[in-house]
Amino acid sequence: MKVYLKTYGCQMNERDSEQVARDLVARGYEMTPRAEDADVVLLNTCSVRDMAEQKALGKMGMVGARNRARPEVVYGFLGCMAQARGESLLTQVPHLDLVVGTQKFHRVADHVDAAVAAKRRRRVESGAIDDLRFSVVDVAAEAGSQNTIREHALAARQATAFVSIMQGCNMHCTYCIVPRTRGAERGRPIADIVAEVRSLVERGVKEVTLLGQIVNLYGRHEFSKTADGRSPFVQLLEAVNAVDGLERIRFTSPHPIGFRRDLVESFGRLEKLCEHVHFPLQSGSNRILKAMHRGYTVEGYLDLLAGLRRARPGMAITTDVIVGFPGESAEDFAATCAAVETANFDNAFVFRYSSRKETPAAEMDAQISETLKDERNQELLDVVNRLARRHSAACVGRDLEILCEGPSKTNPHRLSGRTRANKIVVFEGRARHIGEVFDLRIVHSSGFTLYGEATTTDDDAIATVASAPALTA
Question: Nearest Cα to 134, choosing from 98, 108, 171, 152?
Answer without folding.
Answer: 108
